[in-house]
Amino acid sequence: MSTPAPVTKGAPAAPVNSRGRVIVASLVGTSIEFYDFYVYATAAVLVFPALFFPNASGAVALLSSFAVFGVAFIARPLGSIVFGHFGDKYGRKGTLVASLLTMGIATFLIGCLPTAQVDGWSFWAPALLVVMRFAQGLALGGEWSGAALLATENAPANKRAIYGTFPQLGAPIGFIIANSLFLLLSINLTNDQFMDWGWRIPFLASAVMVIIGLWVRLKLVETPAFQKVVDKGEVTKLPLGRVFKTSWRQLILGTFIMLATYVLFYLMTTFTLSYGTAATNAEDAAAAAEAAGKPFDPDTFAAGLGYARNDFLLMLIIGVVFFGIFTLVAGPLAEKYGRRKTLIWVSLGIVAFGFLWVPLFGGGFAGTMAHLIIGFTLMGLTFGPMGAILPELFPTNVRYTGSAIAYNFSSILGASVAPFIAVALWQAADGSTFLVGLYLSAAAVLTLIALLLSKETKDMDYENQSS
């Protein structure tokens, strides 16, 4: 009788993140982060000019509010360096938890701030708003890259672009939740109630969402790609220095590849909300300012579309639904045809859209809705592949830092100044947005140049590449 062969027990398999956990953790985290970010963006248009800059004229108060809005984008590159360092040196999981906590605490505290109308707070209220906005930007500087790496470094073969769309989907979801909540509050509260305390609710409510996000992320294990770097002893001591030494060209290309996406998004959200709800003539604007007890400067007045705030918020939310749908569509397209080719065609579409900016907005309600739907469709198609292409530009041991720096330095060139430049161009053209459209087209041309100078990253060895 033969003796059974001994059973050899191998080393226990390393724990892995399930597909569902990866999708939920990357999607939930970025949804919360973008919710927090967009709550401020909406308030910057609807609430903060009156509450934190009450002594300025309408246009100056709006520009001041946008200037504080831009502070976060100055903070984002610093956040990319700080969180990128820890993400490449100590791992993705803990860094993602830290970024979520930072964003959540800052957003909650904005909801607790006194306004400039409170005695003794005319200076400190705006100053503290700047500090909290800086903290928001710091957190978002590390959040996106970590979420993108969580998704793509756990993705099966030939699925990175598809998995990479899940953290991207957090942007439209966060936008819809934030603006739907503002819309619900403004419908159910009087204007005085909304301006007095109602605007605080979306900021305070973020605490609940952060707790949920933390619960999901604390259950994660480290990504296989980073674990291989640890096992091989290839963890970089100073990721920042390493990425600038070995991947400086990718940093430049990644920054400009993302440029048109940023300009398009912040024109479609923040600027269009200002333009869409602005009075159509100076007389109506003056009457509205008088009713609100605010000064009116006719020299800085620029005509808008005259929609009621709630009506235009609803139109924006409908447009952002297309953003979400086409973010998901973009993943399979980038997987089938390549990231570079897909984005080249989409960027050409953005160039054309810039030239259609005025004709669409001039077409009444139908034209305005077409403008929002087309713009947000292009936004989904350009934003979706970014979750794959930016991380793929960099080796594993500097991937967090590299993709974060490219993503967030692009935010300075694109997002931080886009609403400010658009408002200035709108005023300079006496209410026409023709120059705003040209500005968008010019940004898309720069992105096209960067794409043409780059290489396709679809078939790169994602897990075994190191600098």
TrEMBL record:
> Which keywords has UniProt assigned to this entry?
Cell membrane, Membrane, Transmembrane, Transmembrane helix, Transport
Q: How does it sit in the membrane?
A: Multi-pass membrane protein
- Asked if the Swiss-Prot or TrEMBL record annotates the protein with the keyword Membrane, the reply is yes
> What would be one Pfam family of this protein?
Sugar_tr
Compartments, record wording: Cell membrane
Q: Where is the Major facilitator superfamily (MFS) profile domain?
A: 22-458
Entries under SUPFAM superfamilies matching the protein = MFS general substrate transporter
Name the residues that span the membrane.
37-53, 59-83, 95-116, 122-140, 161-185, 197-218, 251-268, 312-331, 343-366, 372-394, 406-428, 434-453
Major localisation: membrane
Where are the coiled-coil regions? none
Q: Which PANTHER family match?
A: INNER MEMBRANE METABOLITE TRANSPORT PROTEIN YHJE, SHIKIMATE TRANSPORTER
Task: Spell out the protein name for this chain.
Answer: MHS family MFS transporter
